[in-house]
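Hi team,

Below is the intake form for Type II secretion system pseudopilin OxpG from Candidatus Woesebacteria bacterium GW2011_GWA1_40_43. Please confirm the fields before the structure is written into the shared record.

FORM ID: S-0412
PROTEIN: Type II secretion system pseudopilin OxpG
ORGANISM: Candidatus Woesebacteria bacterium GW2011_GWA1_40_43
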Amino acid sequence: MTANKKGFTLIELLVVVSIIGILATLVTANLNAARSRSRDAVRKADFKNLQTALRLYYNDSGSYPPLSTSIPWGAEWSTSSNVYMSKVPNDPLPGQAYTYAPDAANDTFTLTACLENKSDAKCDKDASGNIIACSGDSGCRYSVKP
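The structure came back. Fields below:
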């Protein structure tokens, strides 16, 4: 009597399932890295828009907004005569925030965010050339001035 050998052995099935698991892990890791780079690109674009709005404000008033006149993150930013941004952007990652810090005379400012990709060329560096990390985060600090 001859045995009909159709189908896969248990070992063959285990090998295939293992390979699929490894590939799924690699794809997920790459997808997460792409998402963090995408959020970093959004942060940089947000800062360009904020810089433009702050320059418009400076042109109208002769100074940047003082810290006491905080920028309304997530809301419209306007004065009685001008709308500078219809919606001031928030950090794309919940739990993180952008910061705005004018100097004492309100003639310059610093916008700061935390980038997720520590190898980004725009990460802030200290005097020794070391990347400045965000507090309590694995990312790096990113700041812009006018």
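SUMMARY LINE: The chain has one helix and five strands.

Thanks, M.
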